[in-house]
Write a structure and sequence with these properties.
The two termini are 13 Å apart. The radius of gyration is 12 Å and the shape is elongated. A hairpin with a 2-residue loop joins strand 4 and strand 5 (45-51). It contains no helices and 8 strands. It is mainly β.
Length: 86
Amino acid sequence: MRVAQQITSTTTATYTVPAGATAFLFVDIFPVSSNPAITVSINNITYFTGSISGMWSCKLTLDAGDTITVQTNGTVNVFIHGAVEV
């Protein structure tokens, strides 16, 4: 699976794991504007918050219904890729 989107000055739910599935994901965030602040949350619990000047990346294992949300005050490109197991 792959999700790619650009986010500008907003909060966006970027991916929700399908019902009955487990997802093994990479989340890569690339700044477009200069040093944007980002907050990455999983099910409304903050996973990371801070300013980024280069690529930010993490690996996650998520269960059915889990949602990744990204918030920024600038512009970032978000790529989520990996495997979904049903």
